Amino acid sequence: MAPAQNWLAVHLKRGTIPAQPLTIFLAGLVGVMAGYSSIFMTFLIGWIQDYSILPCMQLAETHWLGLIGLVLCPVVGLVIVSWYTRKYYPEAVGHGVPEVIKAIARRDGVIRPPVAIVKLLASALCIGTGSSIGREGPIVQIGAAFGSSAGQLFQLSARSMKVLAAAGAAAGISATFHAPIAGVIFASEIILGNFAVESLSPIVIAAVLANVVQQNHGATGEHTPEFPHIDHQFDGAYYELPSYIVLGVVCGLMAVGFTKLLYYFEDQSEYWIPKHWVRAIACGLLLGIIGTGYYMIYPIAPEQSVAAQQDPDRRHPIPVLYGTGYAAISHTLHLENAQKLTDADMTAEDQHHENIRLSRHQMWQNLIWLLPLVIVKPFLTSACLAGGGSGGIFAPSLFIGATTGAVIGLFLNLFAPQWCDHPGAYALVGMGAVVAGTTHGTLSAIVVVYELTDDYRIILPIMAAAGISSLIARWIDPESIYEKKLSRRGESIARSHDLHHIENIAVREVMVRKFPTVQYTDNLMQIIKIARENPHIESLPVMNEDGSLHGIIRPEDLHRVLDTDISPYLVNAHDIAMISPIAVSPDENLLEALRDFGSRDVGTLPVEITTGGKRVLIGLLVRADVMARYREELLKH
């Protein structure tokens, strides 16, 4: 990038274009690039599958060598990706989002430009050869790398670079999921950690243009969600709410279990298999053997929708435990209990061609098919990432949530059909609940599930389950699946949303209630004596004759006078006091107090109340005490 930067420095000097319009323009460009990158990644994954997994599946129908090929496909992908990324671009290993968070928080948004290309090729190879991971994390990192590269090219400020990286992340989510609103919220809630107004415009522009590119050139087409034809709704029935609450609790536990398993598997594999290429082979074989074995038992789902029966490509999908698992998610979302359907529903075949209507026996079959997937999927995703794979955890979280919800929904429909909705409704709600539990991004999880299905009618159960799941997950483990990866490396990052811990603490809880004062007529010798008797007070309040506050004397004010030749008996308190400093109310919170500390650059603030039209000093707020309480709250939470 150096030649391009030098050319721009000569022909387009910094400041020629105002920073804000330039940032917005670059955000739009980044959105377009992220949109096309998402399309190309999807194409590349399909192309690799066409020349790796699918030929092995065709050969397996007639010869046992095809099954061996299916077992070895993930091994080949993991070995190649693990070797190359660890040697040249270690930040491309794993699920990508923690690296973006770290780059924004610690490196002023700087991401090496080649990471975008390396991540795209590595993730496509991993997923295309069967690794049980998702493409959302990689496209987030790719988009963020584009945004960072644009900022570096035009030598923008660190603040603009961070916004562009977040805009690229939003564009990646928008293009991948057909979810522009979710992209904006994800970038603000998880990547930046705040919803600052000045950063929203570039993020929104990037998300919109990425989605426009996807609509015009993507595989799903215009205005088509990732999982269309969902027909579930919540009519406010009280008797269904307990089941959704239980689902939220279960999904919260599943989310925590998935997070802990992911990093436990990583630790154990590194301990027992220190060589990364041997570890990649072992983890790939584990995935290949289990994935192929399950495929031999269940080549397809027990029941197929009308649309799937008419489409030859959907009748023969890749093994359910290989790749992103979107086919299995779609299957769970369309499960219906045939006994709950009216005659009008049963005759509307054309309208519900995606729905899968199950008898009681078929519900048992689907329950037996789905239950092992709930257990095995987190295990295999952990193996792929421990083996050095490059892919995200968003799709596995959706998979775990959908299968968990479907299992609970099938169980309820088998034993208490009058107290529940169709199984597919629980799969839909479970998706949002597990994503909220793993990422701790409750709002992002709710919106992304809504935009994935384009169905608002069941939003209330999704909100309830996602909120409960996130609460359970935070209670058991305060760190999200992204934050844990950073903290394990000793890189815990304080985000702006951490300040809410002190936003709920009032000044009265921290202020010093017993404090010394000096009169405005006291000379320097008297002031020094009082200061020595109270070393814990950084600044001394100076009082008028009527007991009102005259000002404060800071340590630097004393030092400045002591360094002169003026007699200390000739200098009075009113001569050196800072007159009428900012005072805080005991009802203000510590976040507001921090703002006041910075506005006047003082270490102590007077705390005053108004009584009978007169301001009365009741305490002192010391900056060191505020910071100590802030650290205490961070450790507590």
List its salient traits.
single chain, 637 residues, mainly alpha, four-stranded mixed beta sheet, two-stranded parallel sheet, 8 strands
Please, could you describe this protein's structure?
The protein is mainly α and 637 residues long. The protein is built from 28 helices and eight strands. The chain has a four-stranded mixed sheet with strand order 3-4-5-6. The longest helix is centred in the N-terminal third of the chain and has 32 residues. The mean pLDDT is 84.
Task: Indicate the topology.
Blueprint: H1 2-11, H2 19-50, H3 53-60, H4 65-88, H5 97-106, H6 114-128, H7 136-153, H8 158-177, H9 180-192, H10 197-217, H11 241-272, H12 276-297, H13 306-310, H14 312-315, H15 326-333, E1 335-337, H16 343-347, E2 356-358, H17 360-386, H18 394-415, H19 423-439, H20 442-453, H21 459-476, H22 481-487, H23 500-503, E3 518-519, H24 524-533, E4 540-543, E5 549-553, H25 555-562, H26 573-576, E6 578-579, H27 590-600, E7 604-611, E8 614-622, H28 623-636
Parallel strand pairs: 1-2, 3-4
Antiparallel strand pairs: 4-5, 5-6, 7-8
Q: Report the count of strand segments.
A: 8
How much helical structure, as a percent, in the residues? 55-70%
Q: SS-based structural class?
A: mainly alpha
Radius of gyration: 30 Å
Strand content: 5-15%
Tally the helices: what do you get?
28
Straight-line distance between termini? 43 Å
Please tell me what the overall shape is: elongated
Q: What summary fits the major beta sheet?
A: 4 strands, mixed
- Which regions have little confidence, pLDDT < 50, spanning 5+ residues? none
Average pLDDT, rounded to a whole number, is: 84
How are the strands ordered across the major sheet?
3-4-5-6
